[in-house]
Amino acid sequence: MKKRGAPSWLLAWSTSPEWRTISRAQARKNLAAWKAAPRCGAHARSTGESCRNPVKAGFKRCRLHGATPKGKAWHVSAAAATPEKTERKVRDRIRAAEKRARRLAKMSPEELAAHRQWQRTHKPGGAAAREQARAERKQNAEFRKMIAAPRPTPTGEAAALECQIAALRVELDARRRDDQKPIGAFA
User: CA-CA distance, 83 to 80, in Å (whole number)?
Assistant: First the structure.
């Protein structure tokens, strides 16, 4: 039967006296740091004793007693960007905006119109959203074209139909007036 488990030569270091000495020293160091760490001072309602859990870095309370920021600070990384990095990011954005403004200022009106049209048609997003926007633009263009077209002049047949419709509406109104007359004992 084949022997299972790690070979003894792999376990040699972890079972040596030197390793045990180093591990004990590191464990003592970790425990000392943990004991020296600041503790949460929140009091329990039932017992009145302090919580004594380690506080989160940069806070005065533990994760259970208010170490979570409220409002706009919610979910902001504790390791936020340094002020220098934030300033560099703002400077880069300003520089890019100025470069874009210079490029647009050099364009002719036709180039600028083409560029604006390209921007409208190439917005970021999924393929389905772009396809829907494209279909809407096409429908809107067809609708504007239809509205701008002059209305056709009515033909003789259309005029005859309009007269028939008007006569039928007059007859319908007369019948409605007759239907509204009270009948029987209520007359």
Answer: 9
